[in-house]
Amino acid sequence: MRFGIAVTTLCASVALCATTSAAQFPRRGGAFGPEPDYWVGLDYGYQGGMTVFDATGSEWAIGYTSQLRATVAKTVAPQVTVGVAAGFSTPTLTYYPGTSGTGNSFTCSFTCTAKADVTQWLAFLHYGSGLGFHGVYSLEAGITQFGNFREQSTGDALPPRSSANDFTFGLGGGAGYGFSRTMDGYIAENFDLVMHSQGTNVNQDAPRFFTFRIGFRAGF
Fold this sequence. Notes:
Number of strands: 11
CATH architecture: Beta Barrel
Distance between the termini: 38 Å
Radius of gyration: 20 Å
Shape: elongated
Order of helices and strands: HEEEEEEEEEEE
Helix content: 10-25%
């Protein structure tokens, strides 16, 4: 948790410095005018699998899946934006009930194939814009929710019945291409650590998501 607090503090410090810089210096212009004040974006990503040990005693071997993510951001300095992102995915997983029980001896007594909804709400700091090719870099922090667990073939609900808000932080990088002053495309990979409560199932490493994204954003 100390490392998580340190990363969050770093993100806040960088955002504060960027805001101060924007206040002290005029925004860069050019042949195509100044950068847009706001950006909205949409991307489609490949999200790698991972194993999660839950406080209920169950274990989730989550398979790879696709993620759809929407973003809204504000320009605070040249090539720097601060914003929020909402990502949604529905991975297939191998579910081990462990000591949690299901309340139904015919539903996943030992192991079963299941589905779950994974939602991420993240604040992010993004660097990189401009015409033509350019690098893109990001820091992000927020929450990840695992919920709506159900047996794949029958749709029967599985524990946990309520979603937890797990602190999440990460970073990413990739390449972008500016088609115009108000239109960017990008390819990037993000790495996120999810601080999920694992109860007595002590695991050496926190769950982690590797997400490869292709998307675009429009400025106004």
